[in-house]
């Protein structure tokens, strides 16, 4: 999918409900098929998470996980697997639906890339509203400091429920929204043009989509990585003082000794994860969309 109107079903199929449903189905399928790599790289993700909240070098984070043992290594894996599948379904489906609505505007009113980016922004907004509670649960589960007080998923849910919606499940909603809307907007706005450039070098469509998803996601992950670190630190604790976004950012910046290098600790592993998951997801989704059009 390059982001043009033709690639999104043409004029004749824009309003057809089956066409809209296919986008949701293809998004969910592509994300589900990339769930296996998500399982494989989950220890990498958890290592990054420990670096984000404890500000430790990679070898210390790995040693910490090793001491906890293989059973706890995959504690918290269920939410990201569930999020991965549902996220793809909602994100790709909503973006395509919004894009079809925007494509009904007067010709040349807005470029194809800008339309894709704007539709991605709207999809990212809904995504944040739906998935912030799942991300909150995931981050609490992955924080080893919560293992004794909150040993099970049920205990985590009970604790968050007792704190109310804003302090509990929707903790860090504003930075999550900023990250998701910007990330989705950039992803859908850039992946089409990047795919066209790569395809112009002679690569087949599947390889072009994979490279496009990989490069685009890599750039977005690095750009928005500080927001991900902020979200992880705000959501990892299930109790104690609940500071606002500004106070949490200032505390995080001080804890990183006001160093951008320390703030980006674990960023290289984020690139690896993005290359695997979003490259595969983009390639599968684009292939399914082109077959159905």
From TrEMBL:
Residues in Solcar repeats: 22-101, 111-197, 204-291
Presence of the UniProt keyword Transmembrane helix in the record: yes
Domain of life: Eukaryota
GO MF term (any one): NAD transmembrane transporter activity
Pfam families for the chain: Mito_carr
Record bears the keyword Cell cycle: no
Signal peptide: none
Membrane topology: Multi-pass membrane protein
Subcellular compartments: Mitochondrion inner membrane
UniProt keyword list: Membrane, Mitochondrion, Mitochondrion inner membrane, Repeat, Transmembrane, Transmembrane helix, Transport
Transmembrane segments: 24-45, 169-190, 210-232, 262-285
PANTHER family in alphabetical order: SD08549P (PTHR46131), SOLUTE CARRIER FAMILY 25 MEMBER 53 (PTHR46131:SF5)
Name under which the protein is recorded: Solute carrier family 25 member 53-like
Native organism: Betta splendens
């Amino acid at each position: 999918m390059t982001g043009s109107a033709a690639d999104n079903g043409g004029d004749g199929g824009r309003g057809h409900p089956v066409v809209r449903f296919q986008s949701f189905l293809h998004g969910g399928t592509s994300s589900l098929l990339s769930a296996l790599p998500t399982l494989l790289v989950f220890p990498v993700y958890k290592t990054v998470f420990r670096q984000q909240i404890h500000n430790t070098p990679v070898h210390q984070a790995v040693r910490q996980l090793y001491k906890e043992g293989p059973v706890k290594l995959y504690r918290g894996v269920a939410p990201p697997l569930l999020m991965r599948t549902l996220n793809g379904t909602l994100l790709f489906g909503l973006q395509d639906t919004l894009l079809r609505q925007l494509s009904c505007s007067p010709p040349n009113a807005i470029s194809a890339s800008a339309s894709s980016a704007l539709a991605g922004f709207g999809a990212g907004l809904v995504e944040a509203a739906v998935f912030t509670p799942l991300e909150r649960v995931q981050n609490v589960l992955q924080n080893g400091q919560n293992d004794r007080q909150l040993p099970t998923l049920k205990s985590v849910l009970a604790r968050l429920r007792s704190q109310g919606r804003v302090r509990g499940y929707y903790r860090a909603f504003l930075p999550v929204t900023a990250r998701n809307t910007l990330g989705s907007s950039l992803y859908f706005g850039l992946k089409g043009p990047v795919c066209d450039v790569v395809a112009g070098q002679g690569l087949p469509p599947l390889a072009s989509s994979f490279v496009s998803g990989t490069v685009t996601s890599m750039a977005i992950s690095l750009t928005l990585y500080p927001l991900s670190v902020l979200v992880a630190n705000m959501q990892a604790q299930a109790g104690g003082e609940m500071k606002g976004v500004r106070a949490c950012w200032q505390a995080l910046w001080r804890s990183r000794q006001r160093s951008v290098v320390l703030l980006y600790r674990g960023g290289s592993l984020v690139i690896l994860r993005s290359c695997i998951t979003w490259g595969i997801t983009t390639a599968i989704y684009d292939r399914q969309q082109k077959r159905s059009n």
